[in-house]
Amino acid sequence: MENADVFGSSTAPLTWHDFLERMRHPSAVDFVKSIKSFIVSFSNNPPDPEKDSSAVQEFLSNMEGAFRAHLLWDGCSEEELESAGEGLEKYVMTRLFTRLFASLPEDVKYDEQLSEKLALLQQFIQPEDLDIKPTFQNETSWLLAQKELQKINTYKAPRDKLVCILNCCKVINNSLLNASIASNENPPGADEFLPVLIYVTIKANPPQLHSNLLYIQRYRSQSRLVSEAAYFFTNMLSTESFVANIDAKSLSMDETEFENNMETARALLSGLSTGTLYESNRDGGHVLREESIELKPQTLNSMNERTISDPKIHHHFPTHPSEHKIVNMEDMDVKDQLSVMEKLSNSDLEKRGATDLGKEDHLSRAFSEYQYLYAQVGDLIVNDVEDLLNCYKQLVFKYVSLSKGLGVATSSFPEPISQTETQSPAETEEDMSNGREKQ
């Protein structure tokens, strides 16, 4: 998704390629030396966000001034000079990324705390809790907005991270505008936009949100963080502040109900890591019940169908925190468990699980932790290969182990592609010339 109206021609890959080509020109040797010298000397200094931000902003500003006076850009338009500044920022920040991003332990800790809170909130929060009118509710568009926001940690340059936020906001804005036109209502404003952005952010739970926002705020050229980009970024900062301080009052919710919902969410997430099994059981309340219930064979079947359909989790994760009761597996004889499980093959279990999964109201929740699920081929880079290979190995191990445990034959996976059939990875600068460089 492009943002040409926000960034102009500077979004085009050719402008980045043009910057690199100019830096290879013999007359640019002094520029290259200055840039490399700054990167080396800067990397040797201890982290100090306030000083680091000032130093980077000053260097980028001075270099852009030098560009304007150099023969390489003699006769260039203002747009071309702007593109050169974008290229410089991208080049410098990509190489200083590991030194500048989340450089302080307190930022890393805050990221973790915020992510944990978002994970709890997303288990029970509904659009109505944020006073989002039914007219403006559009889960399909919001899923796309979540996907855009979740890409923020994929890139290194401040501008590229900002693009992820802008894309997310534009999806929301367009969705609200279309809804208002369809319902003959007044065009949506900030009062309609911000609650939806908050809801989308909670559901997306983008990685290291706090550090990403600080990184953009500190190192995105201040002269370019203006107009529409500044407006949407300010809304994102407000969203982070709202979520960090969210309570029952801010959600127009009863205090007891809010605390019960949070405790239920904690129990759910804790149950996934400790091996507690949950069964869907609507009782109209929000409190997780700590009682045992009798487990019948058909209940076990239903639970296994949903569990096996997702190889990354060991237990069924309920669709809503108001629908839970803890099930004690110890109440059932082991032989009875095995006899029930052996009646179904992997194929049967997978098909039934897939059917059940397809009935979920919020299907995206089940896949929120799988970072490559919504990725396109163009989104992947060479550095993703190791992660994908590890995911594949874990998937095979769990699938084969599960099949052995059930006593059924495993179906083979596709033959791996030979390394001789793949292309050699391109050089960093060649990859970067195609667009945003990823982490």
Task: From the structure above, extract its key features.
439 residues; mainly alpha; Serum Albumin, Chain A, Domain 1; Glutathione S-transferase Yfyf (Class Pi), Chain A, domain 2; 4 domains; 18 helices; globular; disordered N terminus
Structure, described:
This protein is mainly α and 439 residues long. It folds into 4 domains: 4-100, Serum Albumin, Chain A, Domain 1; 105-244, VPS9 domain (Glutathione S-transferase Yfyf (Class Pi), Chain A, domain 2); 255-366, no CATH class; 377-431, no CATH class. The chain is built from 18 helices and 2 strands. The protein has a two-stranded antiparallel ribbon. Residues 1-14, 275-332, 337-343 and 411-435 have low confidence and may be disordered.
Topology:
Blueprint: H1 4-7, H2 13-23, H3 29-43, H4 49-68, H5 78-100, H6 105-121, H7 139-150, H8 158-182, H9 190-204, H10 209-219, H11 227-244, H12 255-274, E1 277-280, H13 297-308, E2 324-327, H14 334-342, H15 346-358, H16 363-366, H17 384-406, H18 428-432
Antiparallel strand pairs: 1-2
Radius of gyration: 26 Å
Domain count:
4
What is the name of the CATH architecture of the largest domain?
A: Up-down Bundle
| The named CATH superfamily of the largest domain | VPS9 domain
Walk across the major sheet and give the strand order: 1-2
H and E string? HHHHHHHHHHHHEHEHHHHH
Morphology call: globular
Percent of residues in β-strands: under 5%
